[in-house]
Amino acid sequence: xxxxxxxxxxxxxxxxxxxxxxxxxxxxxxxxxxxxxxxxxxxxxxxxxxxxxxxxxxxxxxxxxxxxxxxxxxxxxxxxxxxxxxxxxxxxxxxxxxxxxxxxxxxxxxxxxxxxxx
Length: 118
What we know:
about 120 residues, mainly alpha, DNA polymerase, domain 1, two-stranded parallel ribbon, elongated
C-alpha cells in the first residue's frame, strides 16, 4: 500500500509533493538570472557576476566611492579594463547600471562591414 496513514489518497500526496518541488526549482532558477545593479551591489554580489573577479570588483568598488555611475559610458570611463566587449558580456550576465542593461547587449550586435574598400 503506497498511502501514508495521514494521507487520504496516494495520488493527492504525490501531486502536492510534485507541485512543491516545481515551485522550489522555479524559485531557485529565477535567482540565477537576477540583475545585479552595479551602484548597489555588494562585493559578493559583484563577484557572483560571471566575468568579474576580485580585481575587477575592487576597481568597481573603488570607482563607486566617487559617486554612483550615471550610465554605462560613465562606468566604462571610470573602471579600468571595461570596454564595449566587456560591457556587453557583463550585461548579458545580468550587470546593470541604473537598472539598465548595456545598449549593445541585445540578441546580438551587428558588425559593420566596409563594402566600399573591398
